[in-house]
Design goal:
The complex is a heterodimer of chains A (74) and B (704).
Chain A (H helix, E strand, L loop, with lengths): L1 E2 L8 E7 L2 H10 L6 E7 L5 E5 L2 E5 L1 H4 L2 E5 L2
Antiparallel strand pairs in A: 1-6, 2-3, 2-6, 3-4, 4-5
Chain B lengths: L3 H9 L3 H6 L20 E7 L5 H9 L17 E4 L2 E4 L12 H11 L3 E7 L3 H13 L3 E7 L1 H6 L2 E3 L1 H8 L3 E3 L8 H7 L10 H11 L8 H9 L3 H6 L8 H19 E3 L5 H14 L1 H49 L4 E10 L5 E11 L7 H11 L3 E8 L4 H10 L7 H26 L3 H7 L1 H5 L8 H7 L3 H7 L6 H14 L3 H14 L1 H25 L8 E4 L7 H36 L1 H16 L6 H10 L1 H9 L5 H13 L4 H37 L1
Parallel strand pairs in B: 1-3, 1-4, 4-5, 5-7
Antiparallel strand pairs in B: 2-3, 6-8, 9-10, 9-11
C-alpha cells in the first residue's frame, strides 16, 4: 500500500483508505470511494495528481493526495 | 458570512410556508385552469452537476437566457423565469445537496423549497451524476430526470438502457440533446408525470422518527435527510442537533449508484475521433512540457486583447472622444447656462505620434452663466467650429449652488466623471475580460489552468481555484474582489482579497505604468517588476502565516475539452457584464460624490498639504506628486496618470510607481471590499496599504 502521491503516471490503482473525512465524502460524490479503481492520468511536479476514473478526470491537490492510500494494480 | 447572493436567495425562499400550503400534487391535474393565478403556480427547480448543460434547459423553459457555466464556481446567483404554470429556478452546478461551499448553500435553499425537481444528468458521466439523482430521490421530491448529452454518449461508443434506468429509479427518464434541442418535446409532455422515485427503504425508515420532530416545511423528508447527513444550518432551522450519518449514507448511496451503472451502461464500440482528440487536448493542457506553453499562450493572448487592444486603444479612444469631449461638455454646458463659469478652450492637433498637443488656448468668462451672454457663447462656438477642442470648465464656487454644480458636474462630478468612467472606461474592459473568461470556461480550460498553477498558489495559502480572481485582478480589482466568493473558505477569501487590493495593478493603471516605464528604460522596468512580484508573493506568504487555520487543498473536476459555442459565449459575456455594471455603478457614484465634496469643502487641499513632507523628504519626489497619491484613492490609474504630467528622473519613476501600485484600492474596490469582506478586514487592507506603500517606496528610494 502506497500514498497516491507515489503512484506512477499511467498506472492503475485501487483506493484503499482515505484519511480525511472531508475528502472522503467529496470524492464519494465524484464517484470515487474506498475500493474504487482509477488511473493516474498526470502528475504535476510538486503539484496536483490528476486521476481518471471511468470518463471522469479529477485533480487532487498534493495535500489531499498525501492522505489517500492506494494499492497499485498490475 | 452572508454574501449578497445568499441574501437574495433567502429573500426569495422566505414564503416557504406558503408553498407548503399549496403543495403540488403531480397526479391530480394536467393543465391548470388559470395559469395566471399565483395559487396554482408550481416551483420547478433545475438541479444538476456542473457542466451538464442545465442552463440550456432553463433557457428553453423560461425563454430567458442564463449563464451556462463550465467552471465549477462561476455561477453563484440563481436565475428564475416562468413556463406555463411553473416558476422555473436554475441553481448552481453541485455534486450533492449539502453545505461545502457558497454555491452549495445557495443551491440547497432553492432545492429544499421545490415542488418539482428537474434533474439534469450528463449521460456520459452517470457514475458521478447519479449520486445527486439518488440523493434527490431519497429526499422524496416529485422529479423527472433529463438524460442530456446523448450525442456525446454515442460518440464515445457508449449506450444506456434508458427504460431500465427509469424502472430502477422509479421516475421518468427522458433522453435529451440540449444543445440541439432534441427531446425537449417529450420532456415537456412528461413533466406532469414527475413523481417520487424508489428510495432506500432502510433509509426512509430511519427518517420517519426525525420527520415527526420537524417544524412545518416545504419538504419534510428532504429536511430530515439533510439533518441526518449532518447539515448544521437545516438542523438549526428546526432547532435540532445535526446527526452525523453522512458518511454511512454516502457510502450506501455510492454502492447503489455503482449497481445501477453496472446494469444500464454498455460499451458498444470504440470512441469516435472527436472524443479522442478532446481527450488528447485535455492531456496536453496538463502535461508540463506542453501545458506551460499553452498556459503562457493563453495569458499572452488575454494581455494582448484586453490589456493592449481594449485597455489602451479602445478605452483611450472612447474615454477621450466620447467621455471627455462629448458627454462631459454637454452636461457642463447645461449647468453653465445658469451658473457663473469660466470656460477655457484648448485647441488640439495630433502630432506625428498621433498624440494630441495643445496648439492654442482661449478663455471665455461668463460671470452670470452662458444664458445671460448669448453673444459671447456664440463667439465661443465660432472659435471652436471645425476644430478639435477640449473645454475646461471652472465653475464659481462662491454660492452654494456653485458648489453643488461642482459636486455634480465638476472635475470629479457624479454625472460627468462617473458616467465617463463607467461607460467608456470600465464597460469595454469588463466586456473584454468576461469574453475571455467565457471562452476559457466554455472550452473547459479553466479547471485545467487551476490545476497547473495550484502548486504556485499553495505558497500563498491558496489553491488553484484562486487563479480566477487573480487573473481578473489584472483587469479590474473591483470585479476580481467580487469573484473571491467562489473560494472555499473565508481564510482563502481574505488572502485573495488582500493580494488583489495590496499588490495587483489593474489594467487601467497598467496602461499608464507601461507608458511611464518606457520613459525610465529597460533596467528600471525590470527593477519595478521584481519589486512588485516580490511584494505579491511576500504579502501572500505573510498573510498565510499570520492567519489562523488552514486553507483547503485543490479538489476539482476536469470537464472534457470542447469547442466553445459562440452564441453561448456572447450571451454569457452580456449577462455577466450587465450584472457587474449593476453591482459596481452605485459605488462609483458614491465615490465621486465623496471626492468632489472634499474638493468643494477644501478638505482635498488640506490632505495634499499633509502629505507633502512624506513625498519630498522620505520618497525624494516633487511636492506635486502628493496630489497623485490623493487622486489614487479615487482610482489608481488616476494617480498614475497624475505622475505622467511630472518631470521625473528614472529613479523617481520607479519609486512613485511602486508607491502608486501598492497604494490603497480605488473607491469602487473599497466599496466592494466592504461589502464582501466586512468593515474590519476592508479597513485593515486600506490602512495597511498606506503603510506598506510608503515604507516600501521609501526603502526603494534609499536603496536605488
Amino acid at each position: 500500500m502506497v500514498l497516491l502521491t507515489e503512484v506512477k503516471k499511467g498506472s492503475r490503482f485501487k483506493v484503499v483508505r482515505i484519511d480525511e473525512k472531508d475528502i472522503r465524502t467529496q470524492l464519494l460524490r465524484f464517484g470515487l470511494g474506498e475500493g474504487s479503481e482509477a488511473v493516474c492520468f498526470e502528475r504535476l511536479p510538486l503539484g496536483p495528481i490528476v486521476i481518471k476514473h471511468r470518463r471522469q478526470e479529477v485533480a487532487i491537490g498534493r495535500e489531499f493526495a498525501n492522505k489517500i492510500w492506494v494499492e497499485p494494480l498490475e | 458570512m452572508i454574501t449578497l447572493s445568499t441574501f437574495l436567495i433567502m429573500e426569495k425562499s422566505a414564503p416557504e410556508a406558503l408553498v407548503e400550503a399549496e403543495k403540488f400534487e403531480p397526479s391530480s391535474s394536467a393543465e391548470p385552469l388559470s395559469p395566471a393565478l399565483s395559487s396554482t403556480r408550481t416551483k420547478l427547480v433545475l438541479v444538476g452537476n456542473p457542466n451538464v448543460g442545465k442552463s440550456g434547459f432553463f433557457n428553453h423553459f423560461s425563454g430567458l437566457y442564463v449563464d451556462v457555466s463550465n467552471f465549477p464556481g462561476t455561477t453563484v446567483e440563481i436565475a428564475h423565469g416562468h413556463y406555463k404554470h411553473y416558476d422555473v429556478y436554475d441553481t448552481p452546478g453541485i455534486y450533492g445537496v449539502s453545505s461545502f461551499n457558497d454555491e452549495e448553500r445557495v443551491a440547497r435553499d432553492t432545492i429544499l423549497s421545490a415542488d418539482v425537481v428537474l434533474n439534469v444528468v450528463d449521460a456520459t458521466n452517470l457514475e458521478r451524476d447519479l449520486f445527486l439523482t439518488l440523493q434527490l430521490i431519497d429526499m422524496r421530491f416529485c422529479m423527472i430526470v433529463a438524460l442530456n448529452m446523448m450525442d456525446a454518449l454515442h460518440a464515445a461508443g457508449l449506450e444506456i438502457d434508458t427504460q431500465e434506468l427509469e424502472r430502477i429509479l422509479g421516475v421518468p427518464v427522458v433522453e435529451v440533446v440540449a444543445i440541439k434541442k432534441q427531446g425537449f418535446d417529450e420532456l415537456e409532455s412528461r413533466l406532469r408525470e414527475a413523481r417520487p422515485g424508489h428510495s432506500d427503504p432502510a433509509l426512509q425508515a430511519e427518517l420517519q422518527p426525525l420527520i415527526s420532530m420537524l417544524k412545518p416545511t416545504a419538504n419534510p423528508t428532504a429536511d430530515a435527510l439533510m439533518i441526518l447527513e449532518g447539515d448544521e444550518v437545516i438542523a438549526e432551522r428546526h432547532s435540532l442537533a445535526p446527526i452525523d450519518k453522512r458518511e454511512e449514507i454516502y457510502v450506501a448511496r455510492r454502492n447503489r449508484v455503482n449497481e445501477i451503472v453496472a446494469k444500464v451502461y454498455r460499451q458498444k464500440s470504440a470512441a469516435r475521433f472527436g472524443t479522442q482528440l478532446s481527450e488528447k487536448l485535455g492531456r496536453w493542457t496538463l502535461h508540463p512540457v506542453t501545458g506551460i506553453p499553452i498556459l503562457l499562450f493563453a495569458l499572452w493572448l488575454i494581455y494582448q486583447v484586453v490589456g493592449v487592444l481594449v485597455a489602451q486603444r479602445v478605452v483611450g479612444h472612447l474615454e477621450v472622444e466620447y467621455g471627455n469631449r462629448l458627454w462631459e461638455p454637454a452636461v457642463k454646458h447645461l449647468f453653465a447656462r445658469i451658473t457663473p463659469v469660466s470656460i477655457e478652450v484648448e485647441v488640439l492637433e495630433k502630432d506625428d505620434d498621433g498624440e494630441y498637443q495643445t496648439v492654442e488656448r482661449r478663455t471665455f468668462d461668463f460671470p452670470n452663466g452662458t444664458h445671460a451672454d448669448p453673444a459671447l457663447l456664440e463667439a465661443m462656438k465660432q472659435f471652436m467650429a471645425e476644430k478639435t477642442v477640449m473645454q475646461n470648465f471652472t465653475f464659481s464656487q462662491e454660492t452654494l449652488w456653485g458648489k453643488l454644480v461642482v459636486i455634480l458636474a465638476g472635475e470629479f462630478g457624479a454625472i460627468t466623471m462617473t458616467v465617463t468612467y463607467l461607460l467608456f472606461l470600465l464597460l469595454p474592459l469588463i466586456v473584454g475580460f468576461y469574453l475571455f473568461l467565457a471562452l476559457l470556461e466554455d472550452c473547459g480550460y479553466l479547471p485545467r489552468l487551476a490545476t497547473m498553477v495550484d502548486r504556485l498558489l499553495n505558497t500563498m495559502g491558496l489553491n488553484g481555484r484562486a487563479v480566477i480572481p487573480i487573473i481578473l485582478g489584472f483587469g479590474c480589482v473591483t470585479m476580481a474582489t467580487i469573484t473571491t466568493r467562489l473560494l472555499n473558505t473565508s481564510r482563502e477569501k481574505t488572502i485573495a482579497a488582500s493580494i488583489l487590493n495590496f499588490a495587483i495593478p489593474c489594467s487601467a493603471q497598467l496602461a499608464v505604468i507601461t507608458a511611464l516605464l518606457t520613459k525610465a528604460g529597460g533596467e528600471y522596468t525590470l527593477i519595478f517588476f521584481v519589486i512588485i512580484l516580490a511584494n505579491l508573493i511576500g504579502i501572500g506568504t505573510v498573510i498565510d502565516k499570520i492567519l489562523p487555520g488552514k486553507s483547503s487543498a485543490l479538489l476539482i473536476d476536469l470537464p472534457p475539452m470542447r469547442l466553445p459555442r459562440l452564441d453561448n459565449v456572447a450571451k454569457k459575456t452580456w449577462i455577466k457584464t450587465l450584472s457587474f455594471m449593476k453591482e459596481a455603478s452605485p459605488w462609483f457614484f458614491v465615490g465621486a460624490l465623496l471626492i468632489s465634496t472634499m474638493q468643494v469643502t477644501g478638505l482635498l487641499d488640506v490632505w495634499i498639504r499633509l502629505f507633502e513632507p512624506i513625498t519630498t523628504n522620505w520618497l525624494g519626489l516633487p511636492a506635486d506628486a502628493a496630489r497623485s497619491f490623493v487622486m489614487g484613492m479615487v482610482r489608481r490609474d488616476f494617480g498614475a496618470a497624475g505622475l505622467y504630467e511630472l518631470a521625473l528622473s528614472p529613479k523617481q519613476i520607479v519609486v512613485s510607481l511602486t508607491v502608486i501600485t501598492l497604494f490603497v484600492p480605488c473607491i469602487a474596490s473599497l466599496m466592494v471590499l466592504l461589502k464582501e469582506r466586512g468593515l474590519r478586514e476592508a479597513m485593515t487592507i486600506w490602512f495597511g496599504s498606506w503603510i506598506l506603500a510608503f515604507s516600501i517606496g521609501g526603502v526603494v528610494a534609499a536603496v536605488l
